[in-house]
Write a structure and sequence with these properties.
By secondary structure, the protein is of the alpha+beta class. The protein has a single domain, classed as Clavaminate synthase-like (Double-stranded beta-helix, 4-Layer Sandwich). It contains eight helices and 15 strands. The strands form four sheets. It has a seven-stranded mixed β-sheet, with helices on one face. It has a three-stranded antiparallel β-sheet with strand order 12-6-14. The protein has a three-stranded antiparallel β-sheet with strand order 8-7-11. The relative contact order is 0.22.
């Protein structure tokens, strides 16, 4: 079946595309894989409607796009997990499928997804693609917003571009969750020690420069922390202006794929007491960012 991709919003023809001609339950042909990869390089975010997939089918489909990372960044590990390690549990449910209490530690940790971020930027080798499947949705709200970080870079003034291009940022879940007042154990602090990434990256497929921002950033090498965080706040406000963002309104069984190298995203609130069950597979990048030609 031929793959077609059309802009989700004609006013933003280069950001977010709707895909037809792909059934995530079936093995992908080479030309379908090529079309999806080309679409991600162009649009940054792809939406596939009505993909009624199982966990195993999501995992198999995702592997067509690259090597899967394991969900080592989830707070819940071991016997308390309800999903296999190939799936990040983006939900408000416990191991038994029951709603977590409002003060449940895992639920509070998950609120960090409401901050603008790039998936797994807290890992030495961060995420390339993310694939999020909507299994159960709340009756209202709970959208996911995306920001085009290519446009964010392109619209910075030249003086700011020159200033930030050589900067190296430190990423950790310790930083993003601390913004929300979350506290960590000593073991968690050790497991999530900060990692280094460039603040500006070059996209491998297109060669375009892009801002690599995330709520996981807590410091910039060579800058005092207050100055670094003020700069990061300004850059994030710039990147997430309305003209550079798109709000995805979820429908049941949507499968949304995005390129973390050229986008940021955040989840939006929804009514407490309602189930939101999303499951994410994540394709890892090939090598650490500092080993890539990010500033050539």
């Amino acid at each position: 079946m031929k793959v077609t991709i059309k802009p989700a919003n004609p006013d933003k023809p280069h950001f977010v595309g709707h895909v037809e001609g792909v059934d995530a339950r079936k093995p992908l042909a080479p030309q379908q894989i090529a079309a999806l990869e080309s679409g991600l390089a162009r649009f940054g975010v792809l939406v596939l409607r009505d993909q009624q997939i199982t966990d195993a089918e999501q995992i198999a489909f995702s592997r067509s796009l690259g090597e899967l990372e394991h969900a080592t960044g989830d707070l819940v590990q071991g016997a308390d997990r309800r999903l296999p390690m190939e799936l990040n549990d983006i939900s408000n449910l416990d191991r038994d499928g029951k709603l977590r209490a409002l003060d449940d530690r895992a639920r509070l940790f998950g609120l960090g997804n409401r901050l603008w971020h790039s998936d797994s930027s807290f890992k030495a080798i961060p995420a390339r693609f993310s694939l999020l499947s909507a299994r159960v949705l709340p009756a209202q709200d709970g959208n996911t917003e995306f920001a085009d970080m290519r446009a964010a870079w392109d619209t910075l003034d030249r003086a700011t571009q020159a200033e930030i291009r050589p900067m190296i940022a430190l990423h950790s879940q310790l930083y993003s969750r601390a913004v929300l007042g979350f506290d960590f154990s000593d073991a968690e602090r050790q497991a999530w020690a900060p990692v280094r990434h460039p603040l500006v990256r070059r996209h491998g497929e297109t060669g375009r420069l892009t801002l690599y921002l995330s709520a996981h950033i807590g410091a910039i090498e060579g800058l005092p922390i207050p100055e670094a965080r003020a700069l990061l706040r300004d850059l994030t406000e710039h990147a997430t202006q309305r003209e550079r963002t798109h709000a995805h309104v979820w429908q049941p069984h949507d499968l949304v794929i995005w390129d973390n190298r050229i986008t940021m995203h955040r989840a939006r609130p929804f009514p407490p007491g309602q189930v939101r069950d999303m499951r994410r597979t994540t394709i890892t990048d090939e090598v650490p960012t500092l080993a890539q030609p990010h500033a050539a």
